[in-house]
Amino acid sequence: MFSVLKGLRIVEGTAFVAAPLCGMTLAQLGADVIRFDPIRGGIDARRWPITNEGRSLYWPGLNKGKRSLAVDTSRPEGQEIVTSLIASPGEEAGIFVTNFPATKGWLSYDVLKTRREDLIMVNLLGNPDGTSALDYTVNCAVGFPMVTGAQSRGGEAKPVNHVLPAWDAIAGVSLALSVLAAERYRRLSGRGQLVKVSLADIAFAMVGHLGYIQEAQLNSEEREAHGNYLFGAYGCDFETKDRRRVYIVAITARMWRELGKATGLAETFAGIAAELGLDLGDEGDRFKASDAISLPLALWCAERTLAQIKQTFEGTGVCWGPYQSFKQMLREDPRCSTANPLFSELEQPGVGRYLVPGSPLSFGALTREPPVRAPMLGEHTDEILGRDLGMSDGEIGRLRDAGIVAGPVDVVQ
Amino acid sequence: MFSVLKGLRIVEGTAFVAAPLCGMTLAQLGADVIRFDPIRGGIDARRWPITNEGRSLYWPGLNKGKRSLAVDTSRPEGQEIVTSLIASPGEEAGIFVTNFPATKGWLSYDVLKTRREDLIMVNLLGNPDGTSALDYTVNCAVGFPMVTGAQSRGGEAKPVNHVLPAWDAIAGVSLALSVLAAERYRRLSGRGQLVKVSLADIAFAMVGHLGYIQEAQLNSEEREAHGNYLFGAYGCDFETKDRRRVYIVAITARMWRELGKATGLAETFAGIAAELGLDLGDEGDRFKASDAISLPLALWCAERTLAQIKQTFEGTGVCWGPYQSFKQMLREDPRCSTANPLFSELEQPGVGRYLVPGSPLSFGALTREPPVRAPMLGEHTDEILGRDLGMSDGEIGRLRDAGIVAGPVDVVQ
Q1: A 319-358 → B contacts, CB under 8 A
Q2: Mutate to test the interface with A, among B177, B329, B354, B411 (most CBs of A within 10 A)
Q3: Which pLDDT tens digit goes with each residue over A6-39?
Q4: What are the E-state strand segments in B251-402?
Q5: Is the pTM of this model over 0.95?
Q6: With helix as H, strand as E and coil as C, how does A25-38 read?
Q7: Exposed, middle or buried, A224 (CB in 10 Å: 0-12/13-18/19+)?
Q8: Taking a C-beta distance cutoff of 8 angstroms, is the pair A320, A247 a contact?
Q9: Which end of chain A is least crowded, N or C, by CB within 10 Å?
């Protein structure tokens, strides 16, 4: 992590991927992020993947570096604790991030604003109209599963969902961006605001930014599935002699020249170009010739092991990469190890010692510090009530006895 | 767009997806973003998808709301123009975003810094060591293609690439976040800095944040492909009577109850739970029972049209969505139309009139303004040289005559 946002204070009431990712992203940039949860854990506290002992591997990943408050917000005293935290004074406080349907009631902007006029509240919704939607139900609506997977060639294809929760990931970082934009605005104007973002809009906007909506509107033909081919340029996957797979790309003219040179196939490619009447220095023509280009490349790859291919391409301008399963990535890729400053090994209580990434954003004016593990549920309850809200030990004891606050709690399946 | 970042001034030297998306994201939040390109267009100026007339639909999507300067930076005078722009004085200027390999030479941080000590430069790399990598060659390395597509059930699966350039999209928003974080830091400390981000780190970090690295490290079994099933909870796709498809999800206990209620299958589900000895109120148990749950749901969907399913689920707590191709999305989904304030119809010169998304981040203190179309290449050359750099008409004319600047240019395939 980098302390580039040191001092900034965010309270989050969140669950699942996008909204917790927002807080975690800001925490890894040095912000003080307090997540509050029910005293038995939030709706996502036990989410898969889990360890053999039944502890979530998912939750600690998305809540690194946060402080945790376990509080029963079904009771007025619990609500008051959270409200006081959200509305805490100070130029760098007064920021609340949530994906709860907080349009009315004690967590709504209108109510919270009565406690701090310049509050910044960022609310993630599912759909723009406030109805629920998840990554999966948004993704199916935005076209990509219809063009993912085996080539359709005009036939009807069964949709293929991505496994990466891409819209959640994009939304999480976008929420963090909106926090900083609103905080900058408040710093300059004195005005807080409610920022609303819907997961569906995140997806529809990106589909439009990437040109897919315009293509659907202006071009008569529907985009088809092209398997692992790269649309509009050249890219394809190949099996190696040792039954691994690689992906080879040539989106620029230079990458294309380098590929011909490194594989010794430049003349073969020239022959293909002549035969098809295409200029393979042009990316669109390379796309049209994908099948023809892939034939000799497939033979070339099948005669070489992954290690040999790596050695051949190293130091050249060929753009390629090996396919790796999650375990292969961990075993073989130095970028996914402590050899990469991005990663540290951390001990997560109850879960184990493992490789943890910090922020991928590297700020040169600051020193990279190792990522901070996720809190136990309610690990900071006492500290938050005492240090942040100024409660006495007696008061905290009373709240604990009344079951309004708790922690630390070991959440097991 | 929203003018939440009004006043902020960014110069970008970029190409392809991630880095232009950063500038576009900031432009749609009101920042003044100047993109400079070679006078015949950058390496991505003609990128597919293209219109029937050969104009890129891709480029205008990722460069909306920017100002464009066409300049020959292979010549010292061109370099001096860009350097002057990057190093322009003012608290809100002096920010440079690039994905060029700018580690040495005139565009490097060390050289630019001599012209403005508190410069902020954000440099996107492919790999952490500076070697090139693209979305496709990063994606194959981070595990997801191995678990995307048809269920592997222990067998060897052919990898399936996503079509959404997800890592580029995440990187683009992350770059924008890093700009605001660094600008906040400079505002408070007076210090600029070089921010380095690699596309590979963006991907490896996200894979780790989402728990996949930890799962690979701590659990003995490799994650398998589960087709369109949602890992760790319940989600599946179904065909409807009218041969459309829907995705139905139950990640929370409430969604699960609502699904049983809305479909009338609650008793069937209870029977499955009893037979398998599972508690289907638990998300992990629902995942284990995915096949059994899907059978009656498949029959239920096959007996109903998409419209009937929509009607049945409307107003309930069932979380679902229709699969839509890009054209179906445009034709059928009101969220992807001007009924959604996210979208406006814009005329892009030479390309046509089409639906354009603004920022999905909605700032309550500001009024949403329609998105601004992308510039023609070099559309703002004269304005930038004159108004921003204070050059005389004579000087600009001389630079034009010498072929050092140009525009506006209509870029056609």
Answers
A1: 319-330, 333, 335-336, 340-343, 351-352, 354-358
A2: B177
A3: 999 999 999 999 999 999 999 999 999 999 999 9
A4: 319-322, 343-348, 352-357, 361-363
A5: yes
A6: HHHCCCCEEEEEEC
A7: middle
A8: yes
A9: C
